Amino acid sequence: MSHAPTQEDGLTRADIASAIEQLPEEQRSVLLLVSVEDFSYSEVADILTIPVGTVMSRLSRARERLKQILENPSRGARPVSHLRRVK
Fold first, then answer.
1. At what angle do helices 52-71 and 7-21 cross, to 10 degrees?
2. Backbone angles phi and psi of 79, in degrees to 5
């Protein structure tokens, strides 16, 4: 059972596309190669000439950052810091 896309569906896709564009290039590349192009981690590592562990790390950071952007769009692309200032 399928249905025609609604305006709300389009906005969701637009929001996701905008959020992906806000990611740093290194995270965006890995996310798109794995999630959209369906390459394996090993294939992505070969394509980008980086270790598989780096692919996994960048993908994890990209997914977390994407989640933050989509949950709180007003924060935009500002990096979230988990560091505390020490005097």
1. 130
2. -70, 145
Instruction: State the pLDDT at residue 80.
Output: 45
Bin 86: left if φ > 0, else alpha if -120 < ψ < 50, else beta. Answer: beta
What pTM value is reported for the model?
0.71
For each of the domains in the chain, give its residue range(s) and CATH number, in order of start.
Answer: 16-71 (1.10.10.10)
Q: Per-residue pLDDT tens for 56-69?
A: 999 999 999 999 99
Q: How many CB atoms lie within 10 A of CB 55?
A: 24
